[in-house]
């Protein structure tokens, strides 16, 4: 019961921390039988929580032993959260061999009994887009479990791609893609190194679920192109804002097209990418951070800006104190990059949960009505989310206002930027036509 309650609270927290969480491919999740879920690992604690709260099955995550701590914490993590410690050889040189032998035995037994494991085969958490080189643990566990049962069980390895727009930024987006199962029967039965062959298949499965470029430099390049070109592509293809899967496919296509262009038209592709970077830098120097800033506000946006003010103010009034408290605590502690999003989310969970419960109890005590207390609790939570949404809309409005002022007071700069935009769009559309013709 405690596990299910905490799982529910964590799910609410995740859906509050991120502006939008989208899952696709859930039909690939086995409802029974032995399974190993494997995922990329860009954001230390958030990653396992997203997988565990997004899948109905009881999952046993494998986690680094150094996160377990003292006896009480270890007992809770093992017995209430079903976590399995793995000892890193570089940190536990003396006891790691025996301890990890116990870990493998535990995992094999779980799979034999049709349980579910969660493994992050990259081994460590780093804020990267895509997937890094994989450890062989997931493949070794799967193959050994099948061998122990004389292949009476088939372990399904399910790749899960965690695609964050920014895992360390509050109210960013998360797109989760679950891929089809990776199976040991798909490797060469006569291979001399089945573990490596299966690990290669796992990596391919993960790459299909991720926005993967293969290097940090290419990440920077594709990010610049996405920032400039993606909105145009989505509008030209009439894709709705809440269609997360189509957004993912477009980003995937931008990466593929960029890699193709670099391989086949390197000089021209680099020239255009450099022009895009200069264009974006010029926009930022003018205080413009959104390409949408050059478009007019829609009628719906204008209506929401005007009539949403009272709800925004209510959200600020009910949430400003805990918001600044979270921000103050977060800024006062030193946190590794991969743990920033996780830490912010957990600090926010504790403080906001305490705050909402407190105002609910106080309201109940003052009004002597539990219904009013519950309503205040819900209004505080929902108005807080709306205040964030409205403030982002106001930022868009301020960007559009800045462009309008630039057009009036710095018309030469405005028209130079617009001409640059047009030329860059024409160049990218030419690349797009060439790439699409090659893919057909």
Can you offer a commentary on this structure?
It is built from 14 helices and seven strands. The protein is α/β, with parallel strands linked by helices and 440 residues long. The protein folds into three domains: 2-208, Glycerol-3-phosphate (1)-acyltransferase (3-Layer(aba) Sandwich); 216-286 and 415-439, no CATH class; 299-409, no CATH class. The model has no long low-confidence stretch (mean pLDDT 88).
What is the average per-residue confidence, as pLDDT, rounded to a whole number?
Answer: 88
Provide the number of structural domains: 3
DSSP strand content = 5-15%
Per CATH, the architecture of the largest domain is 3-Layer(aba) Sandwich
Question: How many strands, which pairing sense, and closed or not: the largest β-sheet?
Answer: 7 strands, mixed
CATH topology of the largest domain: Glycerol-3-phosphate (1)-acyltransferase
Spell the H/E element sequence: HEEHEHEHEHEEHHHHHHHHH
Q: Termini, distance in Å?
A: 53 Å
Question: CATH homologous superfamily name of the largest domain?
Answer: Glycerol-3-phosphate (1)-acyltransferase
